[in-house]
């Protein structure tokens, strides 16, 4: 594995790969790597000659200062983990400073993606997807990848990146990768590190509820499934009393067309990719997201 904090080093590695006709896989991350990231890196190693793993906590995609400050930073452990993977000699790990990433100061450009960003995370995190698009485009420019790998836990982010690629017309293959879960079903996330042991113990209820919702979808209407999921999580602490006032506070649960991300009112409205349920839930001061495919 090679590692650098310098855009110029990365560009030199990319130039050399292009000169040799090599394919390049990009795995953008904000570090605090877990098995979910590792699955993306392993797939990228399998499918490409050079793999660029970026590790950069992108300040302009955080609309909440506290969330940015609390975001886990574990660079040394992340680099050791990547270096331990079979095939890691193909990897260039790029961990720039904010100044290296944004040498002209905070970027002025903004992106709009229309309906795909006007639901769920979009209105609740103003500027978030534009901030993601700015950094991802910069990473595309620096690493000129053949393929870019993103996890499906951030389902809406994938739709936004698809829209970004349509806007900027870069010939990059977008590779969505399945969620990796802990043995008890909790979707792996860097934010899980911030859960207390008591919260971590009940957090798998989110996935368990979504799995039950998928079964209900066989015979219940969309609105009834939505209401059941929200009620089940919101009333969990009443049925199962928790220490320290611990409770689930669902922010939203939407059942949407898996391509357009527009809410559906009837299962028949879902198009070629089917329907997907997307949830954001607060637990123990941590915002967790997850999805279920119907
Ligand atoms: O999904 C993430 O970790 C981030 O949004 C990304 C894609 C690395 C951009 O900062």
How would you describe this structure to a colleague?
- This protein is an alpha/beta fold and 294 residues long.
- The chain has 2 domains: 2-177, Rossmann fold; 190-293, 2-Layer Sandwich (Pantoate--beta-alanine Ligase, Chain: A,domain 2), CATH 3.30.1300.
- The chain has 12 helices and 9 strands.
- It has helices spanning 7-19, 35-47, 65-70, 75-83, 98-101, 121-124, 128-143, 155-168, 197-202, 205-216, 222-234, 236-239, and strands spanning 2-4, 24-29, 50-55, 91-94, 147-151, 173-177, 248-257, 275-283, 286-293.
- The chain has a 6-stranded parallel sheet with strand order 1-4-3-2-5-6, with helices on both faces. A 3-stranded antiparallel sheet has the order 7-8-9, with helices on one face.
- A hairpin with a 2-residue loop joins strand 8 and strand 9.
- Helix 7 (128-143) packs across helix 8 (155-168) and helix 10 (205-216) runs antiparallel to helix 11.
- The longest helix has 16 residues, at 128-143.
- It is globular and about 60 Å long.
- The structure holds pantoate.
- Pantoate binds at residues 28-30, 58, 61, 132, 135-136, 154, 157.
């Amino acid at each position: 594995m090679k590692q650098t904090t310098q855009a110029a080093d990365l560009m030199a590695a990319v130039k050399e790969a292009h000169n040799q006709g090599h394919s390049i896989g990009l795995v953008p991350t904000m570090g605090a790597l877990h098995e979910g990231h590792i699955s993306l890196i392993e797939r990228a190693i399998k499918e490409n000659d050079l793999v660029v793993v970026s590790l950069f906590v992108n300040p302009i995609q955080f609309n909440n200062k506290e969330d940015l400050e609390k975001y886990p930073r574990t660079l040394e452990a992340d680099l050791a983990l990547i270096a331990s993977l079979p095939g890691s000699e193909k990897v260039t790990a790029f961990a720039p400073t904010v100044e290296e990433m944004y040498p002209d100061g905070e970027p002025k450009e903004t992106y709009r993606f229309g309906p795909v960003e006007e639901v769920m995370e979009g209105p609740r995190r103003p500027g978030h997807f534009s901030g993601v698009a700015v950094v991802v485009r910069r990473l595309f420019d620096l690493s000129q990848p053949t393929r870019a790998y993103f996890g499906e836990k951030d389902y809406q982010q994938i739709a936004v990146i698809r829209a970004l690629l349509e806007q900027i017309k870069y010939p990059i293959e977008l590779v969505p990768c399945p969620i990796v879960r802990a043995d008890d079903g909790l979707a792996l996330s860097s934010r899980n590190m911030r859960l207390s042991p008591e919260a971590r113990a009940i957090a798998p209820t989110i996935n368990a509820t979504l799995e039950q919702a998928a079964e209900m979808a066989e015979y219940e209407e969309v609105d009834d499934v939505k209401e059941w999921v929200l009620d089940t999580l919101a009333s969990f602490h009443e049925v199962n009393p928790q220490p320290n006032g611990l409770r689930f506070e669902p922010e939203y649960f939407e059942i949407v067309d898996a391509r357009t991300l527009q809410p559906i009112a009837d299962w028949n409205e879902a198009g070629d990719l089917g329907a997907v349920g997307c949830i954001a839930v607060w637990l123990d001061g941590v915002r967790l997201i997850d999805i279920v495919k119907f």
